[in-house]
């Protein structure tokens, strides 16, 4: 009954789906990053540095320019975290936008693989990594092959989070 009520309001259904799936899948990715760091010592993304990069874009710097001390303000950390979750929600929004609002009630795996894994991986390696100074496809990083493995694994975790959240939401509404 709740599903019928929500689905009769496509904007609201899309908004609920976007927020739930976007936030949950990004949170799953963050929890994975914490677990990976504890298990291997591989550090998590510095969202303060990402916020610093984003703020620099407003001043015409399209590629990350680190602070000399590597410390970033609370505002930069906040901006980086907001960006992180906003991007997760943007990827979730693409699903009902591209596959229709009916996707909210009946999510399927292939669209989530296309958006949650393929698109996020391409965007990460062609936009985020270069913007943060790693070069196109991470070719300026010390170990591009290691980067590819970490990116692929992280985006697979994000994809699983998207699918699990979409299925859980569909079963609840």
UniProtKB/TrEMBL annotation:
Keywords: Membrane, Transmembrane, Transmembrane helix. It holds the Pfam family DUF2938. The chain crosses the membrane at residues 15-35, 82-106, 112-138, 150-172. InterPro entries: DUF2938. Signal peptide: none annotated. This is DUF2938 domain-containing protein.
């Amino acid at each position: 009954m709740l599903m019928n009520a929500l689905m009769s309001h496509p904007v609201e259904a899309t908004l609920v789906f976007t927020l739930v799936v976007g936030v949950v899948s990004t949170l799953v990715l963050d929890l994975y990053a914490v677990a990976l760091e504890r298990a291997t010592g591989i550090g998590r993304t510095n969202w303060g540095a990402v916020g610093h990069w984003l703020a620099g874009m407003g001043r015409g710097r399209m590629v990350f320019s680190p602070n000399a001390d590597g410390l970033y303000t609370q505002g930069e950390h906040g901006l980086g975290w907001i960006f992180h979750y906003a991007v997760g929600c943007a990827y979730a929004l693409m699903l009902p936008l591209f596959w229709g609002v009916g996707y909210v009630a009946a999510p399927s795996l292939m669209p989530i693989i296309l958006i949650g894994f393929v698109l996020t991986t391409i965007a990460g390696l062609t936009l985020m990594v270069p913007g943060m100074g790693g070069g196109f496809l991470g070719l300026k990083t010390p170990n591009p092959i290691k980067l590819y493995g970490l990116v692929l694994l992280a985006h697979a975790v994000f994809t699983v989070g998207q699918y699990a959240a979409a299925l859980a939401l569909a079963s609840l509404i």
